[in-house]
Design brief:
Layout: H1 3-10, E1 27-31, E2 34-37, E3 42-45, H2 48-51, H3 60-72, H4 84-96, E4 103-107, H5 110-127, E5 134-138, H6 147-151, H7 156-159, E6 169-172, H8 181-193, E7 196-201, E8 205-206, E9 212-213, H9 216-228, E10 232-236, E11 260-263, E12 275-279, H10 281-285, H11 306-319, H12 322-342, E13 348-354, E14 357-362, H13 371-382, E15 385-386, E16 393-396, H14 404-417
Parallel strand pairs: 3-15, 5-6, 5-7, 7-10, 10-11
Antiparallel strand pairs: 1-2, 2-3, 4-12, 8-9, 11-12, 13-14, 14-16
The structure holds pyridoxal-5'-phosphate (PLP).
Pyridoxal-5'-phosphate binds at residues 109-111, 114, 142-144, 202, 207-208, 236, 238-239, 264-265.
Length: 421
Amino acid sequence: MNLQQRDKKHIWHPLTQHQTAAPPIAIVKAKGALLWDEDGNQYIDGIASWYTAMYGHCNDLIITSVSKQLKELDQVVFTGFTHEPAVQLSERLMAILPQNQQKLFFNDNGSTAVEAGIKMALQYHYNKGEKRDTLIAFEEGFHGDTFGAMSVSGLSVYNGPFEEFFLKVIRIPTPQTEEPQELLTSVKELLATHACAAFVYEPLVQGAAGMKFHDKKGLEKLLKLFKDHEVLCIADEVMTGFGKTGKNFASEYLDIPPDIMCLSKALTAGIAAMSVTTCTQQIFNAFLDDTIAKGFFHAHTYSANPLACSAAIAGMELLTSEAIKDDRARIRNRHLEFAARVKDHPKVAEVRTLGIIFAMDLNIATDRYGMLRNQLFDHFMEKGVFLRPLGNTIYILPPFVITNRQLEQIYDAIESCLPLV
Ligand SMILES: *Cc1c(COP(=O)(O)O)cnc(C)c1O
C-alpha cells in the first residue's frame, strides 16, 4: 500500500469533504521552495505551505538552531519556569514590534492567539469593573477555528452549525476609501448603543477572504474611533506578520498601533505550531492584583516550547538579514511586472499586490470551493505549481527564497489557465 492508501484508512483531513474530495497528495520531501510527492513529482510551493515556511523548507540555519536546542532542553512547563529560548524570542520580537507592545503571551497556533487576545480584552474591561460584552469584527474576516476566533470570523462556509453558540459580535464592512463616512457614522452609533470591548481585524489584507485589501487611511480613522471609546484593537497578524506585506508587520503602515497583536504562521518559520499574543503595558497592568483571579488564567500545555522558540529565533535572524530583505524586494518587483503583464487580460477583473503578496480576481463568478477552483488547482499541479485559489481569486504568497525561475514558472502556470476559464 502506498501512503495515499494507508492515509485513507484512518485519517480525517482538515477542511475536507471526504465523500467528494480527491485523495490527498503524499509529500515525502521538501527543500527551499520545492515539494516532492511519493511518485517523484516536483511542485513549487507557491503559498509557502500556508504562509509558514517563508525562509524555505528545511532551511539549514533553522535546522542547526533547532537541532542544537533539541540536545539542550526539549520541553518544560512554562508556568513557574522560564528558559533562554523564550526570553530571547521575547527580546527579539519586542525589538521589531510596534513600540507600544510590551508583553508577550505564548499560545499554540493562530486560532488560540486570537482566542487569548479576545479573552485578554474581555477580562481587561472586567478587571476594571466595566461590563463590556460585544466584539466588533470585519465581514469576511478570518481569525481561526476555535469558538472565540470563529465568532469573530465572517466566512459562513465554516460557521454554519455553530453560529448560535457564538460570542456577541457585530460585523462591519472594511473601509474601502480614505473617508468611509457611512461606515464611521454607523460605527459611532454602535459605540453609543452597545458595550463594545474589542475590535478584531486583519490589518490591510484579509487573507482567507481571498487576499482582499482595504484602505489604510480609512482603517486608521476606524482605529482612532475605537481608541477614543476604549475599545481595544486586536490586530490579527497571523497571516500578514513577518515581512510579507513589505514591512515586518502590516500594522507598521498605520499611524495607530494596535493594543493587542496575534502572531503565528511564519513565526516559527514553518517548523512548529506556536503563536504569541502581545499587548501593551497598560493591558498587562490591569491584570495585576492581590486577588489571584484577576490574573490571566489561560494556559496551553506546550506554551513556549523551547524547540518552537529556537525555530522562531532563527526565523527572526533570517527575517532581519540583508539577503532576505533583498529577496523581498526582488519578489515584489517581479510581482509588479507580472501584474502589469496580466492586468488588461479580458479574463482578469483585478490584480493587486502588496509586498510579496500577489492576487488576481478572475472575471467570472464561482463558489469558494466550487468546481472551477478544483480545475484550477489540478491545472497548476500539472504545471508543477502548488497554489490554492479561493473562489475566483488566484493568489501567490511564495517563500522569500523562491528563485526568479521558479517565480516565472508560477506566472506561466497562471497565464496558461486564463484561456481555460
Ligand atoms: C491562519 C489564520 C488564523 C488561524 O491560525 P491557525 O494556526 O490555523 O489556528 C488566524 N488568523 C489569520 C489571519 C490566519 O490567516
